[in-house]
Amino acid sequence: MSSDRRVVCCDLDGVVWRGDQPIPGAGGAISDLRKAGFRVVFVSNNSSQPLREVAAKLDAAGAPTTTEDVVTSAVSAATLLASTLHRGAPVLACAGPGVLEALEAAGLRPVTRPPASAVVVGFHRGFDFDELDRASAAVRDGARFVATNLDATYPVPGGMIPGSGAIAAAVATASGRAPEVAGKPERPMVDLIRKRFGSAGVVVGDRVSTDGALAAALDWPFALVLSGVTQRDARPGGEAIPQPRPPFVADDLASLVPKLVEVTSAG
Q1: What is the percent of the chain with per-residue pLDDT over 90, rounded to a whole number?
Q2: Are residues 175 and 121 in the same domain?
Q3: The whole model's pTM is what?
Q4: In this structure, are 238 and 191 located in the same domain?
Q5: Do 37 and 105 belong to one domain?
Q6: Element (H, E) at 224
Q7: Both 95 and 169 in a single domain?
Q8: Which of 101, 149, 219, 233 could pair with 183 in a Cys bridge, judged by C-beta atoms 3.0 to 4.6 Å apart?
Q9: pLDDT tens per residue across span 50-62
């Protein structure tokens, strides 16, 4: 349900934490945004965790949050499929527990092998050849093919790990079909954000190609933090600060928030 409060739509990986390690100052920065009157919501392309686990991780990072203020690409993928599939339709989940939860909440039936009406691919560390075989076979047999997102990597302490996009690319190669994409910055996620959180806000993220593109699709300002994928000196697999620069650029959330509050307070 949308709200009249000003909204900050905040990414998680590379903004609030890297892997299981909170980024210093992020929890306090979120608290400061709330004290300034913002509604802080969290929109993540990482589909691997159930919503309660994401909320618990936010609590541990110093930013207590209810599941109502968390949206993941798993939720977006399940919402997309539920709009066309019949209730109880079998969906092969080549993905983690977050996708299983979202499919069940949407009235769909997760399965691990064909036959299936659809295949959803998302980030999970257990991906292997047998799963690639099953998922690509279902897609070749006509199942609808949805990727939670196409992020090639996710930031973790010390570097980056392969993301959902790498797994989706394997299934796409083996099946000969490109997926529909549910997460940032694609239309299913844009529509979900507008429905849940309203029509005006600011997007905060660490990845120009997804968070920045989401802001453009929403027609919201973009605030870029350099604590994740995008850095001043771009590393292989990372992204560079774009030109022209976004309206806000800061080293991390803690250094961003005072600027964001100041500019917003000044109108």
Answers
A1: 92
A2: yes
A3: 0.95
A4: yes
A5: no
A6: strand 222-225
A7: yes
A8: 149
A9: 999 999 999 999 9
